[in-house]
């Protein structure tokens, strides 16, 4: 079982951390997969391709077919863009579970799909915050989760590590070094134990499924920053499209409410459950981001699906 790290030479926020990581001890050339060079360090494999990071699909399966090694998890190194242009270091799961079959995903993936979220997301966010603080990157850089979005298509538990939000910051060597150090420490490449390994988790088995709020999931972030919290998919308001011409008038029935919100919740719940075998996936709602009829509909649907709704202290 190997960890696959993916970088692209066309993105300075991807190749920068990859180069910083490869400058650390223990790496040697690995197999060339379909023209893509790789590097090996223990059970970690790093690939450097030349295409869009969100368009190279099924790299986990392609690696397995080409090498015979089973991919346990995938970590993508990428840039982040934001309208605010604010410098940021972000972590997020991937998928577009809210899209209809006839919609074309604007940034990779497949409609109605979500990759299993990498269980390391929560623990690594907390490490990243500590690294950024120790390297004096904060408060200039915001350290944050992002909601589930974009491709590429993969089957293994996956996360993106990103540097944002403009070219000036994508090229920042100190930001690249922080991401590289996160991977180095998080995977235990320096000789210590790896961080966020669900299979060795002997403590609480509760996993947060975030529903509602903005793209940077501030209400969910407040919980995930606590030690010991595991995080699965995070669905912001825009990935829970709800169509209710009658505004439901407080009714709890979900029958008349259109949109793909049920699909998005179900797909994300199942993907999260698959990534945390033996865990209890509990929904956390950003209550203030919903209108009353939306909250009633969502809680009603969660009850129908036997998905528990938790309060902050439950995590």
Automatic annotation (TrEMBL):
One of its GO terms (biological process) is D-amino acid catabolic process. Keywords: Hydrolase, Metal-binding, Zinc. The keyword Cell division does not apply. One of its GO terms (molecular function) is D-aminoacyl-tRNA deacylase activity. It comes from the Eukaryota. PANTHER family: D-AMINOACYL-TRNA DEACYLASE. This is D-aminoacyl-tRNA deacylase. It comes from Aquilegia coerulea.
